[in-house]
Specification:
Layout: H1 2-30, E1 33-41, E2 44-55, E3 59-66, E4 71-75, E5 79-82, E6 85-90, E7 95-103, E8 106-113, E9 116-119, E10 122-124
Antiparallel strand pairs: 1-2, 1-10, 2-3, 3-4, 5-6, 6-7, 7-8, 8-9, 8-10
C-alpha cells in the first residue's frame, strides 16, 4: 500500500524537477546574441553591447563592446544565470552587470564600476553585427 501512494509523489517530484530544468535551459536559449543599452555618465551617453554565447549546452560566455570608446570584443569574466537574474562579471574593468530578464528581448539592470552604479537596460538586437548598433 505504501508503494502505491509513494509512486504518485515521486512521479510529481520528477516532473517538477524536469520542468524547472527546462525553464532554465529555455532562458539560456533566448540569451545568446547581442544585447544593447546605454549608460549615462557625467552628461555623456555611452553605448554598451554584451555579446552572449551559449557553450556546452548550458554555460554562457560574454564579450563587451563600447563603440563610443573604441572597445570591441573585450572578454569579460563569469556569467551567472539564476532563474531571471543575470550577472556578468568584468573584473578587468572593475565592473559588473546585474540584470533581470523581463522578456525574450529585454533586461533591466545596473552596471556597477569603481563603486558607481549606472542604470543599464538592455534590448536584444536582431543581429549580433556591431554595424547594427543604434546611434
Amino acid at each position: 500500500m505504501k508503494r502505491i501512494l509513494l509512486f504518485p509523489f515521486i512521479f510529481v517530484a520528477i516532473m517538477l524537477t524536469n520542468s524547472l530544468s527546462a525553464q532554465s535551459i529555455a532562458k539560456k536559449d533566448i540569451l545568446p546574441g547581442a544585447w544593447f543599452g546605454r549608460i549615462s555618465a557625467d552628461g555623456t551617453d555611452l553605448r554598451i553591447v554584451f555579446h552572449l554565447k551559449l557553450i556546452e549546452k548550458d554555460s554562457l560566455i560574454a564579450t563587451l563592446d563600447s563603440p563610443d570608446q573604441g572597445a570591441k570584443d573585450k572578454p569579460v569574466g563569469q556569467v551567472i544565470l539564476d532563474k531571471k537574474k543575470l550577472v556578468i562579471k568584468a573584473p578587468d574593468l572593475n565592473g559588473e552587470y546585474n540584470g533581470t530578464i523581463t522578456g525574450d528581448s529585454t533586461m533591466e539592470g545596473t552596471w556597477s564600476q569603481n563603486g558607481a552604479d549606472f542604470p543599464l537596460n538592455l534590448k536584444k538586437l536582431s543581429t549580433s553585427l556591431t554595424t547594427n548598433i543604434p546611434k
